[in-house]
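To illustrate the input format used throughout this study, we show a single complete record. The first block contains the structure-token representation of the backbone; no residue identities are included at this stage. The design step must infer an amino acid for every position from geometry alone.
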């Protein structure tokens, strides 16, 4: 396998030229249109991959494993940051793999590699491709999940604002679907903000609630109790029959808490006291 070092050296020295030619050829096979920015990025990625391959042919798979993982991770995160589906990347891998195989076969002929050497080169190439695909997908999923969690957190903050409407009185309009995650957000983030407002009365408006189950109803009641311990009186508005039924089914009594049809009615009653 005396020609292997020569191939490895060639891959390092000619990585940029080889990458440019390969990318120019391969983009013609893609069904979707590829921007110039993507073409340039592809050339840089291909060149890096060729250098990794050259190093692995000399030093072994283990020598580039960690660096290849980190490189693949950056590629996956970059794709996720663009908010494009991972399928955009994966769909291109078969044609990309074939392009590398064709290029390496030409080098095998050029450098007169033996059958054993050709098998080694192709084995190393496919190993690196599989590692790259796996890590790219994992990195994409990790960053996507983080983006989704951050978005959900921001949505939760916007969906339960505490609005001071007059001195000593605030309203919290509950909107959309109330699930355990949102109740947890209310308990950990919204309740402390309510306490900091130094209000005497809070109107919890349910008119924008789509659905609520019995478990969530109990959690909400616990929040009301905590607010009561903080000296904040809670009145409710906009409770529809199905929400009231969920509370009754859970054995939650609303008799001690005043409830009104609208926020306006609740505010008028508060001002009469």
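Output of the design step:
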């Amino acid at each position: 396998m005396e020609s292997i070092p020569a191939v490895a050296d060639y891959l390092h020295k000619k990585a940029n030229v080889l990458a440019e030619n390969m990318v120019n050829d391969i983009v013609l096979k893609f069904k979707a249109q590829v921007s110039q920015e993507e073409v340039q990025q592809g050339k840089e990625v291909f060149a890096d991959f060729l250098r990794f391959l050259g190093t692995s042919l000399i030093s072994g798979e283990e020598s580039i494993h960690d660096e290849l993982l980190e490189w693949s991770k950056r590629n996956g995160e970059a794709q996720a940051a663009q908010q494009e589906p991972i399928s955009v990347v994966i769909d291109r891998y078969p044609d990309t793999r074939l392009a590398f195989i064709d290029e390496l076969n030409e080098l095998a002929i050029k450098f007169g590699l033996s059958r054993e050497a050709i098998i080694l080169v192709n084995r190393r190439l496919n190993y690196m491709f599989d590692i790259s695909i796996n890590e790219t997908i994992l990195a994409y999923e990790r960053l996507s999940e983080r983006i989704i969690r951050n978005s959900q957190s921001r949505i939760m903050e916007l969906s339960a604002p505490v609005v001071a409407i007059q001195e000593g009185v605030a309203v919290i309009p509950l909107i959309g679907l109330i699930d355990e995650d949102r109740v947890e957000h209310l308990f950990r983030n919204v309740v402390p903000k309510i306490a900091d407002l130094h209000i005497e009365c809070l109107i919890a408006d349910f008119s924008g609630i789509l659905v609520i189950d019995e478990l969530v109803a109990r959690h909400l009641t616990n929040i009301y109790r905590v607010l009561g311990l903080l000296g904040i009186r809670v009145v409710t508005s906009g409770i529809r029959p199905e929400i009231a039924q969920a509370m009754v089914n859970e054995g939650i009594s609303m008799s001690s808490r005043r409830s009104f049809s609208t926020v306006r009615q609740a505010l008028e009653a508060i001002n009469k006291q």
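Structural context for interpreting the output: Residues 4-155 form a domain with the Globin-like fold (CATH 1.10.490.10). The mean pLDDT is 82.
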